Amino acid sequence: MERDGKLYFNGKVTCIRPTDIVHSAILTRGDRIVAVGKLQALQALATFPYEQIDLKGKRVLPGLIDTHAHFLDTGFSYTKLNLGAVKTIQELLTILSKEAEKYVPGEWITAVNFDENRLANPRFPTLAELDRAIPDHPVYINHRSYHSSVVNSLAIESSQLIFKAEEDAYGGAYLSKANNTNFKAWIAKQTKESDLEQAIAVASREAVKRGLTTIHCIEGGEYWGDAYAEFIHRADQDLLDLILYYNTDQIGKVIALDLPRMGGDLFIDGSVSGRSAAFMDEYDDQSDCFGELYMADGEVESLIEQAHQHHIQISFHVIGDRAIEQILLAYERVLNRYPKYDHRHRIEHFGFPSDAQIRKAKNLGLSIATQPAFVYLKGENYRTRLGEERLREAYPLRKLVDMGLRVGGGSDSLVTPMDPLLGIHAAVNAPYPTQRLTRVEAVELYTIRAAELAFKESEKGSLEAGKFADFVVLEQDLLEVPELEIKEVEVAMTIYHGHCVYQRKEEE
Ligand SMILES: [Zn+2]
After folding, report:
1. How far is the CA of 414 from the centre of ligand 1 (A)?
2. Is residue 348 domain-shared with residue 447, that is, in the same domain?
3. pLDDT by residue (tens digit) across 437-476?
4. CATH of the domain at 161
5. Using omega within 30 degrees of 0 as the cis cutoff, is the peptide bond preceding 18 cis?
6. 490 band by pLDDT with thresholds 50, 70 and 90
7. How far is the CA of 69 from the centre of ligand 1 (A)?
8. Domain stops at, among 166, 190, 214
9. Within a domain: residue 86?
């Protein structure tokens, strides 16, 4: 029988709080940390039977937290046909028709992670092309951004949905706006429970491989389907803690599940790559284009007010400075009417704030969920769309931390990989000084600061007596390797609530 107590010794244990002092050992019992300290002191403390585990000098950090991921879609990127590597339309059609051979006619072909920008000649497939290549199966292709999808004629017939005619060049295969969200919601409802179970199992296994023990799951609403949110809410969480941010604008659904939080990707604006993120100044590569605000001022304010009055933490997707202005004003109006200490309402992304906007967010007590890998991986796209000057000030992590904002790190998977070690690497190696953090600060972004974003800092985010025994043992020392090698660091072991949920296989 597995012993209740475990004594991990001979490690370099970075506790993060109350200080970043390094200890050599951790004693756990059941799902909790009993104490962190020197081996002998912990042996004296252990009045119960325990197993000893040699950490072999390795670095130990608190379990890592991703504050923004679309967990089921991340799972589907493994269990469904993943189009992430497709380079041409011909290749896309070949892959789809090969996939179709595996299924009897009439069965659905569902694919994810398509992005026309990755093609040598960027475009979507046409309806005629899809119908010709896959005549006997309904096909549904989800775009990586979630803002659009592609279907064939059989898919349209099967869904029996009424489509608004799209005025675009793709001959009817391409769905955006309401067509896209209606179709997505329909697909989510059709998704079998066993498919959801499989997706969550795979995503969980991938998450613990990268040291994650907690994920803030942004699920539900127009882009992901309420069925996903409800599923996460009732799913078993044996490998890690899935904290649901129900991304609906209907507060009744949040209250019905008795959730203390909602939103996550309630869209205030769009994306930089789609030129729909809302800016005060026009896009550099398209004059007269300022992006768009997706909601009216009153709508935003009313959503905040409803959540706030029900003591529900709310969060919005906000990228450009004009969108930031709108959300800050809405929060300000509601908070002036109903002041509340420590509400921690959130803003996701907060991509391009001015110094004045950062100060205002701080004064309003708002929390920021940031994604360091955005600038690191998509910086060139920002440069093209917005110019060097705005790129230099994009996602200014250094300023947020220096100005004392509560800010946590995340991936927005699938937008960037669900990999906190890549996130830490990106924060340390960001292209401009206003975006860079020290290693320990970057680790804090994915541990204690991330815990604070969901009011969980009393139970996780640092290695302290009484907190959950959630931690990660690293194969290479993240705090010592050359800065440019941080993202290559491997996880040796992930411990969640006192149990080993991942162990790296020793190489022969
Ligand atoms: Zn998102």
Report:
1. 8
2. yes
3. 999 999 999 999 999 999 999 999 999 999 999 999 999 9
4. 3.10.310.70
5. yes
6. very high
7. 6
8. 190
9. yes
Distance 198 CA to ligand 1 centre (A): 21
CA of 221 to the centre of ligand 1 (A): 12
Residue 146: its pLDDT value, please?
78
The residue among 164, 190, 216 that closes a domain is 190
Nearest one of 420, 401, 408, 411 to 453, comparing CA atoms: 408
Query: 170 C-alpha to center of ligand 1: Å?
Result: 26
Check if the beta carbon of residue 450 is closer than 8 Å to that of residue 410.
yes
* Residue 464 CA to ligand 1 centre (angstroms): 31
Separation of CA 219 and ligand 1 centre (Å): 9
pLDDT tens by residue, 386-402: 999 999 999 999 999 99
Query: Which residues are close to ligand 1, an ion, with C-beta < 5 A?
Result: 265, 412
pLDDT grade, residue 508 (50/70/90)?
Answer: very low
In this structure, are 350 and 437 located in the same domain?
A: yes
Q: Give residue 12 CA to ligand 1 midpoint distance, Å.
A: 34
* Number of domains present in the structure of the chain: 2
**What is the pTM for the complete model shown?**
0.93
**Continuous segment of H or E residues that includes residue 503:** strand 499-503
What is the CA(75)–ligand 1 centre distance, in A?
Answer: 15
Range of the domain at 390: 264-454
Q: Measured between alpha carbons, how far is 220 from 254 in angstroms, rounded to an integer?
A: 11
Spacing, Cα 317 to ligand 1 middle (Å): 7
Q: How far is the CA of 223 from the centre of ligand 1 (A)?
A: 10
311 and 421 inside one domain? yes
Model confidence over 29-39: pLDDT tens digits? Answer: 999 999 999 99
Q: Determine the distance separating the centroid of ligand 1 and the alpha carbon of 272, expressed in angstroms.
A: 14
**486 located within any domain:** no
Give Cα 506 distance to the centre of its chain: 30
Contact 101/109 with Cβ under 8 angstroms?
Answer: no
Question: Is 448 part of any domain?
Answer: yes
Residues 6+ apart with CB under 8 A from 179: 163, 164, 166
Q: Is the dihedral of CA 426, 429, 432, 436 positive or negative?
A: positive
Ligand 1 centroid to residue 186 C-alpha, Å: 20
Please check whether residues 182 and 273 belong to one and the same domain. Answer: no
The CATH number covering residue 347 comes to 3.20.20.140
The pLDDT tens digits for 81-124 are 999 999 999 999 999 999 999 999 999 999 998 999 899 998 89
DSSP bridge pairs for 269: none
Centre of ligand 1 from the C-alpha of residue 371, in Å: 10
Is residue 438 domain-resident? yes
